[in-house]
Amino acid sequence: MIALAKKDYYEILGIPKDASPDDVKKAYKELVKKWHPDLHPDDKSEAEQKFKEIHEAYEVLSDPQKRAQYDRFGYVGQQPYENVYGSQGQGENPFGQENPFGGFEDIFSVFFGQGRTAEEQRTRNIRGEDIYLTMQIDTKDVLYGTEKEVEYTRYETCQACHGTGAKDGTAFKTCPKCHGTGVINVQQRTFFGVISTQTTCDMCKGSGKIITEKCPVCGGRGRVTVRKKIKVNIPAGVEDAGRLRVPNGGHAGENGGPYGDLFIILRIKEIPGIKREGRDAYSEIAIDFAQATLGTDIEIDGLEGKEVLSIPPGTQPNSILRLRGHGFPSPNGGSRGDHVIKVNVSIPKRISKEQEELLRQYSSLTHTEVNEKKHRFFR
């Protein structure tokens, strides 16, 4: 991925520059849920743009090498265009309102002959756009992994014209402006004198050819809309808001450019009352005084249905019990985590007369035993 300069990925995710990897992941998950386009039907375009920025920021900051490069240079991948005065866009320069030389490539072309060749300009291609989809899966899919079918719409290269946009891929004529070279000569006046440079032909966009008859299938666009079905493997242990990347699953490029990628955002349907933290599942249960004192076996909701939890005698309020190996698997393989259960002991606000009598008997016996122990202690 080539990320544009001057974007503050930390600001996009709302985290400080010293944020830990866990903080990056947590912020990403929260923002993905907040800015999902389906939740903003009234302003879907803005939500989609925000959604893409969040993914771009996460892709950089979640990767240690990309993050290190971004922190040092302010960009990832190939450095984006900057003019000779270091300001991106339309900053001021000592020569007036416009830079008389253009960018770095123009300067090297003028003085050292190292700019783009006409052939490079004619064959410049554009990578296809990435596609983002959301898929909902069940908890059981997370435990064992699964295969799902995805259906979506994308642009594909028109086979009738081979992506050229011309009928039968041959309905061209030589561009009358550049005479098939794909470039034109431009003269610029500078304080050094008149300098002649080459630039991409604006009539044929550098191709050297003009379409005489558009392809009837794609209407001259070189791409057609296709409804596509693919199967994707979802590995065990994936987390909510996790991403699956399908290389070349996005839109077709232009001028022979490569396909973009397909990114599938996973949303896991939670089991009510159970939360996930890493490999462990967390839940709470409530038992009464008698169960906590005597111990018992109770049935609780687990990740795979009903499970039996043994309550040992004398269990105290807020005790933590574990069902070993009943949690989530790790995305990197290995054993499953635990199901961690917090035990709350509930005290009834109202009891029957029979229950009250039994409790008074219990209290009397308890006090009697305590008094006897004190008596033996002081004898």
Would you mind describing this structure in some detail?
This protein has helices at residues 9-13, 21-34, 44-61, 64-73, 104-111, 118-122, 139-144, 289-294, 353-378; strands at 131-138, 146-157, 172-174, 183-190, 193-200, 209-211, 223-234, 243-246, 262-269, 275-277, 280-288, 296-302, 305-311, 319-323, 339-346. Among the domains are: 1-82, Helix Hairpins (Orthogonal Bundle), CATH 1.10.287.110; 275-347, HSP40/DNAj peptide-binding domain. The longest helix has 26 residues, at 353-378. Helix 2 runs antiparallel to helix 3. It has 379 residues and is α+β, with helices and mostly antiparallel strands. It has 9 helices and 15 strands. Helix content is 26%, strand content 28%. Strand 4 and strand 5 (193-200) form a beta hairpin. Strands 10-11-15-14 form a 4-stranded mixed sheet. A 3-stranded mixed sheet has the order 1-9-8. The protein is elongated and about 110 Å long.
Identify the notable features of this structure and list them briefly:
15 strands, 4-stranded mixed sheet, single chain, 26% helix, elongated, HSP40/DNAj peptide-binding domain, 3-stranded mixed sheet, 379 residues, disordered N terminus, Helix Hairpins, 9 helices, alpha+beta
